[in-house]
Amino acid sequence: MARTEIHSIETTLNLAIDYIINPAKTNDYELCSTYECSLHCASLDFEDEFLKGTGRAKTLAKHMVQSFKPGEVSPEEAHRIGRELCDKFLKGNYQYVIATHVDREHIHNHIIFNNVSLNDHRTFETLENRGANSYENLRRISDELCEEHGLSVIENPERGTGKCYYEWQQDKLGKSWKSSLRSDIDSAVKRSANYEEFLSNMQSMGYEYRDRKYLAFKVPERTNFTCCKQKVLGWYYVKEQIVKRIERYNALKNGSLKTRRTGIIDTDESKFQNSKGLERWAIIRNMQEASKIINLLTEKGVSSVEELEEKLLNLHGERLELAERLNDLQDEINSRSELIKLLETYREYKPLYAQYKEVRAKEKFRSEHFKEITKYEGALRKLKELYPDGKIPQLESAQRKFYSLIDERNQKNKDYKSLKSELSELETARKSIGEYLDKERKNHDISH
Predict the structure, then answer these.
(1) Res 353: pLDDT
(2) In angstroms, rounded to a whole number, what is the distance separating the alpha carbons of residues 113 and 134?
C-alpha cells in the first residue's frame, strides 16, 4: 500500500502549487489534474472560495502526499489512484490540484486542496478534522484503494527527501550549488570518451571525486562531498545514468547508435548461401535499397559519409536547442496565464477601489465590498512584485503575447516532430549504407 501524510499550508500557497506541478516532475504536466480550479491559476481560484468564508482561518490549504513502493505502479495508475483518493476523501466538497511525480525511485502523488468547502465555505478543520482524525481517514481510504489495485505495503518509507522551494527556485535561476554541479557534470559527459575520462574532466574543473558505493564530488566552495544519488541530484546524475549518457553520446558521434531495422538483406544467412538464385535476388534488392538511400541523401544535400555525420550531429544539436526552447516557452506560457488572471482581477475591481479611496466612510464601504477589495489588493500586490517599476502592462498586450507564445509553441512542436523524423530517417540511412558497404567488401574479398 502507499504511505500517506498530510499537513497544512498557511503561507505562499502559490509557491507550493508551483512546486508540485513542476513539468520536470510530471512529464510536462501530463500527470497533473484539477477539480473546480484551473491548473496554473489554482491559488487564485482557491482564494476566491476562501474569501467566501469567515476569513478567520489561518490554514489556506492542505497538502497530502501518497507514496508508492518502487516499481510497483505505473505513473498513470498512480495518478488514477490519487484521483480516486481525492474523490473518496474530499467527496467533491473541496477544490484540489493533484500532481504525480516521477523524478524519484518511488512514484508519489502530491495533492493540495482548499481548506474551505465549496458547499458552505466552512473549513476542512471544522467539518472533517475534529479530534485530528483526518490522517487516520486518509490512510484508511488509501489502504483500501491500494488493496483494490493489488498493491503492497511500504514498511519503512524514506522521509525528508523533498526539495525545499528555495532550492527549487534557485535551480530555476541557475544559482544553487547543486545546479552548478549538474551543469558541470553535463559538460564533462559531452567531452568524455569513457567514464575514466569523465572523472578526469571533473578533476580539471576543480572537483575532487570519490567513487565507492556512490559516486560523489566535492564542490570547490563546499567542505563536504555530494553523492550522485537520486534523492540528492536526481536520477539523471546517478553513476549508472552518467555511464549510459557517455556511451550514448559517443555512440552518436561514431555512428553506432541503435536505430530501426534497415532494408539491407543479410546474404550471409544459410538460405542465401544454399541458393544462388535467391542470393542474386537479395544482392539486386540491396543495390536497389542502396540506390534509394543515395537518392534520399542527395535530396538532403549530402554527398559523402563525412557530410552525413556532420549533418546528423548538427540535427541532434538543433533537437536539443528545440527541446530547451519548448521548455522555456511552456514556463513563459504558464507565467503569462497567471499574469492575465491578475490583470483581469486588477481591471475589474480598479474602479471600485478608486471609489473606496474617495468615500469618507471607508470602514463601512470596505465591509460591504470586502471580497472585491481584498481581491484587488491581492492582485495589485502581486503585480507590484512582478513590476516594481510600476509599469503594469495592459491586459490586451498580455493576451496578445500569450497567444503569440501558444502559436510559437505549437509551431516548435511541429518542428520538433519533423526534426525527430528526419533524424530517424538519416540515422537509418547511415546504418543502411554501412551495412551495404560491408556486404560489398565481403563479396569483393570472396571473389579475390
Answers:
(1) 93
(2) 13
pLDDT tens digits, residue range 160-182?
Answer: 333 433 343 444 444 456 777 88
Where is the domain boundary, 254, 282, 315? 254
Give the separation between CA 430 and CA 258, rounded to whole angstroms: 11
152 and 215 together in one domain: no
Please tell me whether residues 292 and 410 are part of one structural domain.
Answer: yes
Strand 208-211 with 215-218, pairing: antiparallel
CB count in 10 Å sphere of residue 159:
9
- Please report the DSSP string for 28-48 in residue order: TTTTEEEESS-STTHHHHHHH
Print burial letters for 17-44: b (CB count within 10 Å at least 16), e (below 16): bbbbbbbebbbebebbbbbebebbbbbb
Beta pairing partners, 8: 62
Residue range 331-357: mean pLDDT, rounded: 88
Q: Band the pLDDT of 7: cuts 50, 70, 90.
A: confident
Cell 484540489: give the residue: 96
Distance between CA atoms of 130 and 123, rounded to whole angstroms? 11
Burial class for 378, CB neighbours closer than 10 Å (0-12, 13-18, 19+): middle
User: Residue 283 contacts by C-beta under 8 Å, 6 or more apart in sequence?
Assistant: 267, 443
H/E run at residue 227: strand 225-227
What is the C-alpha to C-alpha distance for residues 310 and 408, in angstroms, rounded to an integer? Answer: 28
Q: State how many domains the chain has.
A: 3
Of how many residues is the chain composed?
448
The angle subtended at Cα 126 by Cα 67 and Cα 375, nearest 5°, is: 85
297-338 per-position pLDDT tens digit:
777 777 676 777 777 777 776 776 776 677 677 778 877 888
- CA dist 257 and 427 (Å) reads 8
Write out the residue range of the structural domain in which residue 141 sits: 3-162
Joined grid coordinates for residue 186: 553535463
**147 and 173 share one domain:** no
Question: How does residue 447 score in pLDDT terms, banded at 50, 70 and 90?
Answer: low
Whether 143 and 207 map to the same domain: the answer is no
Confidence of residue 272 (pLDDT cuts 50, 70, 90): low
Q: Per-residue pLDDT for 404 more than 80? A: yes
